[in-house]
Design goal:
Layout: H1 3-22, H2 27-31, E1 34-42, E2 45-49, H3 52-68, E3 71-85, E4 88-99, E5 104-117, E6 120-129
Parallel strand pairs: 1-6
Antiparallel strand pairs: 1-2, 3-4, 4-5, 5-6
Length: 131
């Protein structure tokens, strides 16, 4: 995958994520950014989301937490893109989340495996980790 195209896709993804989390766009638009199955790894464990309903439930849980924190946006601190082959790339980013008043909610580092399939580019693996 072209690394410039991957960076542009992630810029759009961050906009969709923030808008869906705020309630400004349908969550379905956010779900379209993810492949099913999706592998999700965090310090708490590993989830393999095999259906769109499972994906929707997990994402809605995350959105509910963000809304309770009065989430407004996610900013990119740093990013690194590595093209693996014609149909996949790794995107590693460090992000900062802000609330409606501009206060920092927290920082998170995430590595994504982005695949370019029949439905276009989608996240197939999301691994949350320390900086």
């Amino acid at each position: 995958m072209d690394t410039g195209a991957v960076r542009r896709w992630f810029d759009d993804y961050l906009d969709i994520f923030a808008a869906a989390a705020r309630g400004d766009r349908p969550v379905a638009e956010l779900l379209d950014c993810y492949a099913v199955p999706l592998l999700l790894t965090t310090d708490e464990g590993v989830l393999s989301l095999a259906t769109r309903d499972e994906l929707a439930a997990v994402m809605q849980g995350q959105i509910d937490v963000l809304r309770a924190q009065r989430y407004r946006s996610t900013g990119l601190i740093s990013a690194e893109v590595t093209g693996l082959n014609a149909s996949s790339a790794v995107y590693r980013g460090v992000f900062v989340r802000h609330d409606v008043d501009g206060a920092e909610l927290g920082r998170v580092a995430v590595t994504y495996l982005l695949v370019d399939g029949s439905d276009g580019a989608q996240i197939a693996v999301l691994a949350s980790h320390g900086d």
